[in-house]
Amino acid sequence: MRCSRCRREAVFFQRYSGLALCAGHLRDDVEARARKEIRAEGGIRPGDRIAVVLSGSPESLTLAHFLCRTFAGRRDLSLLAVEGGRGGSSRRPAAETAARSPGMEWLPVREGGGAGSPAGDAPGDQEPAGGCTLSPAQPREVLADTAWRAGATVLAYGECLDDLAGQVLARVLRGEAPEVNRQPALRTLTPFRRIPGEEVRLYGQGIGVARGEPPCRAAGDGLEDLAASLLSDHASRHPSAPHALLRLWDSLAVPVEEGPGDRAARGGKGVGGNG
Ligand SMILES: [Zn+2]
Questions:
Q1: What is the CATH number of the domain that holds 255?
Q2: How far apart are the CA of 275 and the centre of ligand 1, in A?
Q3: Mean pLDDT over residues 57-83, rounded?
Q4: Which of 44, 102, 189, 260 sits in a 20 to 30 Å window from 36, CA-based?
Q5: Is 160 contained in some domain?
Q6: What is the Å distance from ligand 1's center to 125 Cα?
């Protein structure tokens, strides 16, 4: 299979677009779509302090590297990494190393919503013996609060299309509607929002991101797993289905009082938040 753009050997076939892409053109394509999504969600503004939710998952590590690549030349911006909701203390060393290697500040989150100092050496910062440190019901709030206290103006999540479309379907099955962002002072970005996870992981491998860890399974009613399985099965025959589901959810999100361009503040689109 040859790349549709340069005839080199393709590494990926985009079923929903009909394009075959080589490693270089997949990288360009993913980065162009991620930058477009950032602009659509309100963009990056001069002086922004961007907090990346870093769980140690391949997607979250890839987002950190993508943001470092994209904004390395912007001296007016700063990047920090917030310990992700489903990473858990057992994964903290890998996530912390991944944050510090490109020179990002590391901000651990403690159970109960407190945060250590940006240097991660707060006195009494005791870790549980392993597993997930955060309740799956509140990580988005906790992360937003932690980032906000550290002076962040933007919170960036590494979630990709499959994650978010699965969360939408689970919420539809529960009869839930999009909700309003509870931390409107902090803008949120999800640059990989419209990019399938497989493409994000291939892109990550292409720019040298470590494989990362699969997300920790959060306890719950099992609907996320059911929705993910239903959607994966359906999307194998209808590859546009996750895109359509997310567009539908966006159209249902209720606009709230917000600054210009803060589309992301609308209900946080009601899904996401685990890096
Ligand atoms: Zn190519």
A1: 3.40.50.620
A2: 30
A3: 91
A4: 102
A5: yes
A6: 48
CA distance 109 to 125: 9
Residue 91 lies in a domain: yes
Q: Give the range among 4-8, 17-21, 70-74, 227-231 with minimum mean pLDDT.
A: 70-74
How many angstroms is it from 11 CA to the middle of ligand 1? 9
Q: 28 C-alpha vs ligand 1 centroid, how far in Å?
A: 9
Question: Which of the four pLDDT bands, split at 50, 70 and 90, describes residue 110?
Answer: low
Distance (Å) from CA 127 to ligand 1 centroid: 46
Per DSSP, the chain holds a count of helices (H) and strands (E) of 8, 7
The DSSP annotation for 115-176 comes to B--TTS--TT-PPPSSS--S-TTSHHHHHHHHHHHTT-SEEE----HHHHHHHHHHHHHHT-
**Lowest-pLDDT choice from 20-34, 56-70, 178-192, 256-270:** 256-270
Tell me how far the alpha carbon of residue 210 lies from the centroid of ligand 1, in angstroms: 23
Q: What are phi and psi of 187, to 5 degrees?
A: -75, 150
Residue 108 within a domain: yes
Please give the residue that has the higher pLDDT: either 114 or 54. Answer: 54
Domain assignment of residue 141, given as a range: 44-270
Phi/psi class of residue 106: alpha, beta or left (left: φ > 0; alpha: ψ in -120 to 50)?
Answer: beta
Task: Output the DSSP codes for 220-271.
Answer: S-SHHHHHHHHHHHHHHH-TTHHHHHHHHHHHHSPP-S--TT-GGGSGGGG-
Contact 85, 139 (CB under 8 A): yes
Answer whether residue 29 is part of any domain: no
